[in-house]
Amino acid sequence: MSGNFITKEQFDALYQNCLDFVFFMKKVNNEFQYVYINHEAEDVFDESPIGKNLSACLEKEIVELIVRNYNASIEKQKPLKYRDFYLFSDTKRTSETMVTPISFGGEQYILAVTKKISRQKVMEEKNLFLQSLFDMKMDPTILLASDLTFFDGNPKFQQFFNCKIEDWKGRPFFDFPLVALEDLESFGEHLRNALNGKGQPPVLFKHKKADGNESKFLVSFSPISTNNQVAAIYIQWIELTKNVQLKEDLRKMNHVLSSYKGALNSAANICITDKDGIIEYVNERYAQTSQYSAEELVGNKTSILNSRTHSSSFYEEMWKRLLDGQIWRGEICNRSKYGSRYWVDTTIVPIFNSRGEIENFLSVCFDVSEKKIMMTNLRNIEKTFRLITENTNDLIVITNEDGIVLYVSPNHEKCLGFDKEELLGRFYFDMMADRSRELLKSEFELTLLQEGEVQIELQIKAKDGSTFWIETYITAVKDAERDEVYQFVTVAREITQRKKMEDQLRFMAYHDSLTMLPNRRYLLMEFSKLVKEAIVSENSIALLYIDGDKFKKVNDNFGHDVGDEFIRNFGVALDSSVRDLDIVSRIGGDEFIVILTNMSSEKNIRKQQIENTIERIQQTLKNGWTINDHHFSPTSSIGISCFPEQGQSIDDLLEKADEALYFAKKTKGKNSYHFSR
Fold first, then answer.
1. Which whole-number Å values give the CA distances from 300 to 48, 273, 287, 292, 305, in the listed order?
2. From its phi and psi, is residue 602 left (phi > 0), alpha (psi between -120 and 50) or beta?
3. Residue 262's closest CA among 288, 244, 286, 283?
4. How far apart, in whole angstroms, are the C-alpha atoms of residue 600 and residue 542?
5. Which residues of the chain carry a pLDDT beneath 70?
6. What's the confidence (pLDDT) of residue 481?
7. The pLDDT value given to residue 451
8. CA angle at residue 582 from 581 to 585, to 5 degrees?
9. What's 372's DSSP letter?
10. Rounded to whole angstroms, how far apart are CA atoms 414 and 252?
């Protein structure tokens, strides 16, 4: 009857199929000890951590972070959520953990659920990094969509050619008076080659600048591919000027390139090989990820990292594309020096010499080992957002500042049964169940508008009236110039099953696992409410401390299985003998507590009410029950205490009732009761 309040079998039933990491910990002195972990979390450890302390299983800095948050949750006695990463930090563990404190039997436990969210960190870093590279470019640069319409351009392009990109977005490139009439055919041919994914050296063209003067430019056309298809063309103009200006531009360019190199080295794994795949250079991050030193890598072929995960045709297709002068992008599983496998999101770019021949390959890699991430589309944040939302199971909603729905992800139709048109233009609040609607409105006013984001669990309504639970993250999007909220982005995922599991776990924390009756912890939690109700209604409360007579003989004569069934029937008998507004609780062994509420404050009347209840209990026990062809008609001894005469707290009443029970057993024998004085 002792031990953890949840068994290994119960824990597995709740969490074994959960895709997040689940840890059930026990606080021992100033340490936390592993009690259970689910199947998904087993891959974190080289050997089972069960029974071991955190400090014996994890690195010091990780332990300090975990212990700090565990203790904070215990101190506040409420759930706490924390992240373990910052943008552009070196940490490889990018996750979010929900910590729930649990007290049981005088012991302190922690239930920690860790979600892997490395995708979110990588996407945020890459978007910020790539946008900064584009805007800082020293030369005129534009991005054309695959239909040769303006998609974006940098400030230098606007300055050189007197073109406001915002006015030209979505318009055909050749509508802009930049390319001379005699160059149209040649310029168009280079665009077509880029659309076909062909790499090519820069080409010389003449263009008229914003001041009216004509100048020569080296123009490069670079295809940008996603999913093996050209999605855009990156065009760059480098002006040919006098030597002095060229030197100054070269100096500036070297400075910018050094900055780019520093940014790339801090954000990505970089490798340069010759055309045969022999490594000539790796940055520090690349070496750290592979667990080789730079000296061990340089001079070897990249096949030193081959994990045997991919087929030979995979590499044949990759090299065919690269040797054709095309950019290759994909996910590669490598093997480190010490045998561990890791995934990298890799872009390999052919580098051409002045003769247009391939001389090197530049690989830019992002470590995506924890979860292979969806490729980021370079066209812009909006299209990347649509690509993600239309291929995710999350429910994504965008509303304006008034809460009117502007966009819903397609899976709303499947989950809620509404057509997209039925949701657009509605208030987001109207999609919620009544209680969740009020809660969401409150969070909008108190938290979201102040802090800019909120996490909340809500019940959402489907078209057929059914509801299900969602875990919702809402972010306020502000106007960069006016610093005013103009949109809200909501990302939600269904957690109905998790809520059911949480309810079951909460029930188990406050109920006896054998009889399913409330336990002592439940009484401690509820008694203050009962006292307040009794004071308001000017009534009394009676506490019956009930002990089964000679229960040990049942265990000795019939075994513990019959003994457990006997205890369950004993609890059923007590519960059937009292009113619905009364509480029957098991506090251990064959000891039960019955709380009689709404009792008369007149002592004589109350005494008669109590005795009537005891008589029903004794008669129900006398009628008994049958287990394995053995009939049992048990008796019980009962001690009685009353609020407010014998005490103001549950502890006072339990102590008085226990004393009365002892007196009844000692002086009156079995099947007796005694009132505390």
1. 37, 10, 13, 11, 10
2. beta
3. 283
4. 10
5. 1-3, 85-93, 118-137, 241-264, 370-393, 414, 417, 444-451, 479-486, 496, 502-503
6. 58
7. 65
8. 135
9. P
10. 55
